[in-house]
Amino acid sequence: MRSRRALKSAGALGLLALAATGCSGSRLGLPEPISVQGERILHLWQGSWIAAFAVGGVVWGLIIWAVLFHRKRSDDLPPQVRYNMPIEILYTAVPFVIIAVLFYFTARDENFVEKTTDNPAVVVDVTGYQWSWQFDYKEGDKTVATVTGVPVAPNGPAPGKPVMVVPVGEKVRVRLHANDVIHSFWVPALIYKKDVMPGYTNEFEFTATKTGTYEGRCAELCGVDHSKMLFQLRVVKPETYQKFIADSKQALAAGGGK
Fold first, then answer.
1. Same structural domain, 214 and 137
2. Residue 199 region, left (φ>0) first, then alpha (ψ -120 to 50), else beta?
3. Second label for 142, Cα 20 to 30 Å away, from 42, 47, 80, 230?
4. Are 40 and 101 found together in one domain?
């Protein structure tokens, strides 16, 4: 009886811990997402952990049950059976069901995150080069604003980093280019990164949900000053973004740059 009560208590504590993990909003190591796509990735991550905790709880429960209730009590040999067909079907079918469910949600969310639209509100051509970034804002085939950076020491001043400005709540398409080696565009707050490859244009879209300034960097070892490939993503209100574009157009018209 005592061992049975202990088993029930352990099971209750495990369920409580699982429920607390699922309901507390814990990001389980991921940063707070700032985009619609990042939220979807976070939910997939949390769901995968909940599934892992559930499977682990069942496995550990069976192990504890076997240890407590099927431990050796005498020298008599227990009844021997060659197989148990229902159990064998169960432990063959259940893993396939788990894999199928995880595959479905992963494929669904991957399609959502990688989806591009016909008419995004903002298009930015991002060029990675040894060892910084250039952001070209496009209207059709015309460049209306350009931001170019220089390599910045990892602990150097923030003003030295190139800044990619985007509006909150609007669809932004990022087109990635490289002219030298492979780089990787990574903003941790987006919970997303994508390779920047010479001779091939990668692209993705995101819709920011929070204003603020977020750090970005190259996530692919690309040479001696790889650690200096830093930039910032600045999410601003739409009217602030429109002013940024208007000021850039004026600067270009006057023969300057931004």
1. yes
2. left
3. 230
4. yes
Claim to verify: residue 153 and residue 110 sit in the same structural domain:
no
> Distance (Å, rounded) from C-alpha 195 to C-alpha 211?
25
Helical pair 36-69 and 2-23, crossing angle rounded to 10 deg: 180
Residue 190 burial by Cβ neighbours in a 10 Å radius (0-12, 13-18, 19+): buried
Q: Is 117 helix (H, G, I), strand (E, B) or coil?
A: coil
Task: Please tell me whether residues 214 and 186 are part of one structural domain.
Answer: yes
Per residue in 205-243, pLDDT (tens digit) is 999 999 999 999 999 999 999 999 999 999 999 999 999
31 backbone dihedrals φ, ψ, rounded to 5°: -70, 165
> What does pTM read for this prediction?
0.78
Residue 236 belongs to what domain range?
122-254
Question: What pLDDT digit, counting tens, does each position of 105-158 carry?
Answer: 999 999 999 999 989 999 999 999 999 999 999 998 899 888 988 888 777 666
